[in-house]
Design goal:
Length: about 500
């Protein structure tokens, strides 16, 4: 029972705060004694390996680790403590007992955390256990963990980087097991050269996987500390939207000085930040993240109330108040409140999908993350321009839900959100555009493991746009087609990323 609960908690933890990729699980024998040998970076390592193996793994770990917060988890996993300050025959005998009973033992032959991510000198304890019990030895590697959390890292890493783990991608891979020759292991049981040859054979795939991964991480760190790129094309999109909106509003005689001035002020602040980032701000992964994600989103939050006011004004200029369509909520009672919550969740879904996609692609594939950010901004400002030029497109009808029919989620949404947020709800086609782009991006690059989990939510939003908000099939196809065009644009045009790579 404890094992099941612990596995579920560990899976939730690593899948929520990190991106976990497990490969080669079939290499671990389903029966018989097995010794899993792996590189050692931090306290996460035993839990990661346990997630990748269906059988219970009994690890041999330094007794000092039982004094930390992980001590309870280690005891729940049946970890065998060993005192590295002196010869500890007790731990070795316990490991022999587990293997002779057909169990699985996990060993970190380095005898401690690596200080720099590289595989340190390894001891021969795993080889001696295999010789005495006839167990197979299964090599495994954990790549990316040093970047996530390195308690023994040199002092040049920030103190919080040594104390607290940060989000990142972790890859666990198992390799073909090493099976000892029965006759040779009996003849050379006390031959130290034989012990060393076995452990060197086991460590060969581990070193071969870890060293290239570390070089790649070092290259990424160099790029992250490299000079900032000049202002990119997509960073001019807000200004283009402002200029086109100003021209169209003047032509349709709905020009409003306050709306244009507010949008121009927000973009001026954003442009000043870009110049500071290029010429003044020292570069690291935090500044790259701020420019690539936080700054554009902050600009959207600052600009969209005024931009949507402009779009609404132009829409009313085409759809006169006497001809406007208003639909009242046709449901009542418990059914009405549940359906109101369903409708609210439908419109909150793109926000969750957006946050999840940015999280996944930033830590799993930085180059595709660059394309994702540009595509989202092109969709946002391109969709605004589409509605500005054709105000009736994607309009649907305004939906009024009486307060007494609000469910718990609906009440929460309208309570915590400022009035500007509601402007989004007048344009169901805009939601269809953003969600369609995200889902097509996931299907195209296949980096998000949850792409099919999101498919019913995408379909649910399309149905809500048609049957609840009155969006016509032609309007729906127009927005989905625009999302497809953005993908075609991303596929044919190369962009200068923030680390000066062309993607």
């Amino acid at each position: 029972m404890i094992d099941v609960v612990l596995r579920r908690f560990l899976w939730w933890f690593f899948s929520t705060f990190h991106l976990l990729d497990i490969d080669g699980q079939e290499q671990v024998p389903a029966h018989g004694p097995v010794i899993i040998v792996c590189n050692h970076v931090n306290y996460f390592d035993p839990f990661l390996i346990q997630l990748g193996v269906k059988r219970q793994v009994r690890f041999i770990a330094w007794v000092r680790g039982f004094r930390h917060v992980f001590g309870w988890f280690m005891r729940a996993m049946g970890t065998i403590p060993i005192d590295l300050s002196k010869p500890d025959r007790t731990a070795y005998e316990q490991a022999l007992t587990v293997l002779r009973q057909g169990g699985v033992i996990g060993i970190f032959p380095e005898g401690g955390f690596t200080p720099d991510g590289h595989v340190a000198d390894h001891k021969t304890g795993a080889a001696r256990l295999a010789i005495e019990t006839g167990a197979v030895i299964c090599p495994a590697t954990i790549a990316g963990a040093f970047r996530v959390w390195a308690p023994q890292a040199p002092t040049d890493r920030t103190w919080w980087g040594r104390v607290f783990p940060r989000p990142g991608k972790i890859t666990l891979k198992f390799y073909s097991p090493v099976v000892l020759d029965e006759q040779e292991r009996q003849i050379r049981a006390h031959d130290k050269e034989y012990h060393r040859r076995i452990i060197d054979t086991v460590m060969e795939p581990i070193v071969g996987r870890i060293e290239p991964a570390l070089r790649a991480e070092e290259r990424i760190d160099e790029l992250m500390h490299g000079p900032a790129s000049p202002i990119r094309i997509y960073e001019w999109l807000p200004l283009i939207a402002i200029v086109v909106g100003d021209v169209v509003m003047r032509l349709r005689q709905v020009w409003d000085e306050r709306t244009i001035s507010s949008a121009c002020l927000a973009y001026a602040v954003y442009l000043a930040y870009l110049l500071c980032d290029i010429y003044l701000i020292p570069q690291n992964w935090q500044t790259k993240l701020f420019r690539n994600v936080i700054a554009p989103i902050a600009l959207l939050i600052a600009m969209f109330p005024t931009l949507f006011d402009a779009v609404t004004a132009m829409r009313l200029a085409v759809w006169k108040p006497t001809n406007s369509l208003t639909a009242h909520w046709p449901f009542s009672g418990l059914r009405g409140r549940l359906l109101a919550d369903w409708w609210t969740a439908t419109y909150l879904f793109p926000l969750w999908y957006l946050a999840d996609a940015l999280w996944v692609y930033y830590f799993s594939h930085y180059l595709q993350f660059q394309k994702l950010v540009r595509g989202l901004l092109v969709c946002f400002y391109g969709g605004l321009l589409l509605i500005i030029v054709v105000p009736a497109l994607g309009r649907g009808h305004d939906l009024i839900i009486p307060r007494y029919q609000w469910g718990a989620l609906t009440h929460w949404f309208y309570t915590i959100s400022w009035p500007g947020t509601w402007r989004f709800l007048h344009f169901p086609g805009f939601f269809v555009l953003m969600t369609s782009f995200l889902w097509i991006f996931d299907r195209r690059y296949r980096l998000s493991t949850r792409v099919w989990w999101y498919a019913p939510w995408v379909l649910n939003q399309l149905l809500a746009a048609i049957y609840v908000r009155g969006l016509s099939t032609d309007e729906l196809l127009a927005f989905i087609g625009f999302a497809v065009l953005v993908h075609a644009y991303l596929g044919r045009v190369k962009f200068l990323a923030h680390d000066r790579r062309w993607v």
